[in-house]
Amino acid sequence: MKVILYDLDRQYDDMIASKCDYALAADGKYAPCQGCFGCWTKHPAECFMKDKLQQVCRIIGQADEMVIVTENLYGGYSAAVKNVMDRAIGSSTPFSTYRGRQMHHTLRYGKHDLLKVVVYGDITEAEKNTFRCLAERNAVNEGHERSEVVFIEDLAELEGVL
After folding, report:
1. Reduced to 3 DSSP states, what percent helix, strand and coil does the chain have, rounded to the nearest 5?
2. Within 13 Å, how many C-alpha atoms sit on residue 134's CB side?
3. pLDDT tens for each residue of 53-97
4. Bridge partner list, 151
5. What is the pLDDT of residue 17?
């Protein structure tokens, strides 16, 4: 299953939806993570908040290919995208294991293929390097076999990189 998480305007909804099995719009129409960890323990992979991100742990956890389309924010994800990613912490478990000779949380849904990050907006070389490192570390932590970062200068390029 291919999932695309994006922070673009609604005008891109149809194009994004045609390129994946599930589209997650980071539009801010949901509550931020409360940090209760209930999605880890009390009701695994399900958030107690009854909004559009209640099942986000399962959606992201079951994605073979995860694509994140985000505006650059100082070499990191936009606030809207980060908010959705925070709500998806239940895609792993509170237990730990070694992956890549490092301690990480056990994956609830097993390994995945690709984490691809598409970055738009003004970005410096230092921010590009930060993004590459961030994507690589997120891929290891979330159980992706590989990661890829694509920088685009114009959103007209988006359809070709998804």
Report:
1. 30, 30, 35
2. 22
3. 999 999 999 999 999 999 999 999 999 999 999 999 999 999 998
4. 119
5. 97
Provide the total of helices (H) and of strands (E) in the chain, helices listed first: 5, 7
Q: Which amino acid is at 107?
A: L
What secondary structure letter does DSSP report for 47?
Answer: -
Global pTM reads 0.94
Q: What is the CATH number of the domain that holds 20?
A: 3.40.50.360
Domain count, the chain: 1
C-alpha–C-alpha distance, residues 70 and 22, integer Å: 17
**Amino acid, single-letter form, for residue 78:** S
Long-range contacts of 82-85 (CB under 8 A, 24+ apart): 83/26, 83/28, 83/30, 83/32, 83/33, 84/5, 84/24, 84/26, 84/30, 84/53, 84/56, 85/5
